[in-house]
Design a protein that fits this description.
The chain has 10 helices and 12 strands. It is an alpha/beta fold and 309 residues long. The relative contact order is 0.16.
């Protein structure tokens, strides 16, 4: 009887989390880049607080940071309403002509999410093309355009964080991930940096000099992490984890761009909405990162302290 009751409880628990696991989105521009307000943000939050002193591969923290980053692509009013409805406090959006970030407090931590490139703002795109290196404050060289975007936000961000005393977590997607990495070398109290689909940021000296915990996540065949090319002297910093429909791995998926001329991937220009789009572009969508990191949490021992593989 006890065995039967235990089995029934396990089945019920399994069904409960299975209901929260989201299906893979359709591989179309409309599904991945429309940023629907119907997305169930932070559905895993009850009973799973953010871990201010956690690790950059803690599945709870990674899921929170991925959805916070997804929110940077939404309107400011929706950002604030959604975050406050889920227990975040002191929500601030900082915006300049060259960058945007979202700052919010939760569970004894201050979280900062840097928005990635949007083609609606040509100034963002132009800075992505500034490929020469500029000296970083912490040593080494970083992409000049990335540094310029962070510099535009810096006075506002520094002032905002000076009024807070909690451990700081930084995140970003695409260009935003590059800004998070550079910001991590400038700010005090940084507990960790978690990035999604981020290009190489600086040279070997910069990567070697990074003294903060940093993890970067790559979804499927996302081509942006292979920019800028290594043969130009750019290097990644931090640990890497790969996302797929089945979960998280330390190993690159078979057939990924890392096995080919990876840096050429983003040179295959995406078609118009509704047209056939290359895998590197579809896998770069922040929605895919948010769904796969939260699903990985829900399929694992959610709420138990630990790390992704």
């Amino acid at each position: 009887m006890r065995t039967t009751s235990l089995l029934a409880a396990l089945v019920a628990a399994s069904c409960a989390w299975a209901q929260d696991v989201l299906p893979e989105p359709a591989r179309t521009y409309e599904a991945l880049y429309s940023f629907s307000r119907e997305h169930p943000f932070f559905r895993y939050a009850p009973g799973r607080p953010f871990r201010a002193r956690g690790d950059t591969t803690d599945p709870v923290n990674v899921a929170y940071l991925a959805e916070l980053e997804l929110l940077t692509y939404y309107a400011t009013t929706f950002q604030k309403e959604t975050l406050e409805a889920h227990g975040f406090r002191d929500v601030v959006n900082l915006t300049t002509s060259l960058g945007e970030c979202l700052v919010a407090d939760r569970d004894g931590a201050t979280l900062v999410a840097f928005k990635g490139t949007t083609f609606e703002r040509l100034s963002y795109v132009a800075r992505n093309l500034k490929g020469w290196r500029s000296e970083a404050r912490a040593g080494g060289g970083v992409h000049a355009g990335f540094k310029e975007c962070l510099d535009s936000l810096w006075p506002k961000l520094r002032q905002t964080l000076a009024a807070r005393s909690k451990p700081v977590w930084l995140t970003g997607h695409s260009l935003g991930g590059a800004l998070a990495v550079i910001a991590g070398t400038r700010l005090p109290r940084v507990q960790g940096v978690v990035t999604f689909g981020t290009p190489r940021v600086g040279n070997q000296a910069f990567a070697d000099g990074l003294r903060i915990p940093c993890a970067r996540y790559v979804n499927g065949r996302d081509g942006i992490p292979h920019m800028l090319p290594a043969w130009l002297g750019y290097r990644h910093a931090g640990r890497v984890r790969y996302l797929s429909a089945s979960g998280v791995s330390r190993d690159a998926p078979r057939g990924s761009w890392s096995r080919r001329l990876a840096w050429l991937a983003p040179l295959t220009i995406p078609g118009a909405p509704g047209a056939s789009l290359p895998s590197w572009f579809l896998d770069h969508a922040m929605l895919g990162y948010a769904i796969r990191t939260s699903n990985a949490l829900l399929r694992g021992r959610a709420g138990v302290a630990g790390r992704l593989p």
